Amino acid sequence: MNRVNLLVLIDQLEALVEKAPEVPLVGKVLVDADELFDLLDIIRTAIPEEVKRAEAVSSEKDRMIADGQEQAERIIAKAEEYAAKLVHNSEIYRQAEAESKLIIEESKRQAAEIEKGSKEYAQQILTNLSEALNKTLQVVEAGRQELQKED
User: Fold this and answer.
1) What whole-number percentage of the chain has pLDDT above 90?
2) Is the four-CA dihedral 70, 76, 82, 84 of positive or negative sign?
3) Residues 76-87, buried b or exposed e (16+ Cβ, 10 A)?
4) Is the dihedral of CA 119, 125, 128, 134 positive or negative?
5) CATH class of the domain whose range is 6-150
6) Is 114 a residue whose pLDDT tops 80?
7) Which residues contact 66 (CB under 8 A, 6 or more apart)?
8) 102 and 79 in contact (C-beta within 8 Å)?
9) Are 149 and 22 in contact (CB under 8 A)?
10) Could you give the 3-state DSSP secondary structure of residue 10?
11) Longest CA–CA separation in the chain, Å
12) Which of 2, 56, 41, 55 lies closest to 136, judged by CA?
């Protein structure tokens, strides 16, 4: 199945209800049940795809955090190696030590920034997914209740 956006499907469901003819005096509409059930089947199929995309985002966030940590470790190792080479001269050693601390702090800051950005991105994706799923469930439940009222 092609990648289907849940919000587009929800919009289609809403359009189905909006274009349905109204029943006079009762404030209800007549919806083509086959069309409604077909759209609900597509939504059911699309929900796992949205979940898979959210899981992919979460995996990407974890990968970015791991990459940031690896980069920080490489920078720290380089700083330590550099400092060891300069040990013989105390002034150079002091400068190297200060520089290595700056490099370590910068690498930690970069790693924290990468982690924060990836967490914010993942949070936004999961929030959007949650909202889409909640809206879908509300539409589905309203449809079910409407069908039960007609019985």
Assistant:
1) 24
2) negative
3) eeebeeebeebe
4) negative
5) mainly alpha
6) yes
7) none
8) no
9) no
10) helix
11) 95
12) 41
CB half-sphere exposure, 20, CA atoms < 13 A: 20
Answer for the pair 98, 88: CB distance below 8 angstroms, yes or no.
no
Each residue's pLDDT tens digit, 68-82:
889 889 999 988 888
SS3 20: coil
Element (H, E) at 29: strand 28-29
Give the phi and the psi of residue 22 in degrees, each rounded to 5: -85, 145
The helix/strand/coil state of 22 is strand
Distance (Å, rounded) from C-alpha 103 to C-alpha 19? 63
Q: Which run of H or E residues covers position 23?
A: strand 22-23
Question: Residue 28 pairs with which residues in a beta bridge?
Answer: 23
